[in-house]
């Protein structure tokens, strides 16, 4: 997964667990694409200080994900919903035989059961 995408997802799920100061700097770096120098100048801290805060935030967010796995579960559910959508679209096209429709419905049921079990 792309580093910036990973950072953004981790921040979306766990960002509220950071301090206001950490959130502000992390948002500027990851979401607003400001440079370390720009953030440092804006807050009157060194570039190295900004870098250290971002690295600390990365470690914290990674640690939360290692314990809770919310991003991993979200991404798995997203893939499974995409599969369900694909099967449903095929059924709705009316190009399927009864046998194929039944197979797709069984797949949809199986995937939805897995999603429910994981929640």
Structure description:
This protein is mostly helical and 119 residues long. It contains 6 helices and no strands. α2 crosses α4 and α5 runs antiparallel to α6.
Brief sketch in words of this structure:
With 119 residues, the protein is mostly helical. Helices cover 82% and strands 0% of the residues. Helix 1 runs antiparallel to helix 2 (20-31) and helix 2 packs across helix 4.
Low-pLDDT residue intervals, each spanning 5 or more residues: none
- Total helical elements: 6
What portion of the residues fall into strands of 2 or more residues?
A: under 5%
Helix/strand-derived category reads mainly alpha
Order of helices and strands: HHHHHH
The radius of gyration over CA amounts to: 21 Å
- According to DSSP, the number of beta strands is 0
Quaternary organisation: single chain
Please supply descriptive tags for the structure shown above.
119 residues, mainly alpha, 6 helices
């Amino acid at each position: 997964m792309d580093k910036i995408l990973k950072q953004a997802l981790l921040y979306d799920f766990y960002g509220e667990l950071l301090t206001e100061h950490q959130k502000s700097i992390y948002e500027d770096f990851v979401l607003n694409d400001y440079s370390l120098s720009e953030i440092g100048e804006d807050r009157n801290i060194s570039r190295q200080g900004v870098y250290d805060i971002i690295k600390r935030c990365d470690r914290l967010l990674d640690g939360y994900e290692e314990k809770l796995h919310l991003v991993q579960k979200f991404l798995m559910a997203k893939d499974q919903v995409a599969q369900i959508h694909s099967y449903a679209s095929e059924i709705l096209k009316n190009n399927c035989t009864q046998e194929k429709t039944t197979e797709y419905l069984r797949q949809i049921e199986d995937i939805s059961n897995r999603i429910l079990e994981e929640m």
